[in-house]
Amino acid sequence: MRQNVGFVNTTITWKRIKWNNELAEKYKYGEQTSETADLSGVVENTLDSVNIGFKFFDETSCALGEGGSSGRKGCILQPGWRQLLRFESSSKNVGKTDLNLGDVFSNQYIENGIFEFDPCHLHYHFQHFENYLFGNLTGRKTGFCLQTTWRYHNNKYVGFNTPYSSCSYQGISVGWGSYYFMLIFYSY
Questions:
Q1: Residues 81, 54: contact at Cβ < 8 Å?
Q2: In this structure, is residue 7 part of a structural domain?
Q3: Which of 53, 135, 142, 162 lies 20 to 30 A from 98 at CA?
């Protein structure tokens, strides 16, 4: 078999078809469980994503200071090699309304410690969102940016667009989720 590298010019023609409820039902998936926003952890394939590895963190690593300005220690206490537990994590909104945190620059959010500016990442993190425990290991994830990043449902409540695509305006749209590839540091 011969393989070539190159490109192909293509043309896509879109044609609007008449609404067909029977056809639409074939492609509908995901059920909304609540009239309000309702977050649910996504557990499908989580164990498939777990791996353990090592990483070196130098003195300029954001992991040293992340979470430190509010009195908590950073993700790692000092530079050097760290053992990591890596896995995927996602929270999806299975309710019928958006989880709208909105503008993170709102004074009430900052004054009440809900958002904290991370000078290394140069954006605000949503504090106190999720906790991860793995036996008696002491690793942690201290800040989150709740962005709508993954569409889990396809039904009449779920839009194709979302306003929550930056760390400045945070939330999770109906039928969508906020996805993270987690690094938990557990060797100090």
A1: yes
A2: no
A3: 142
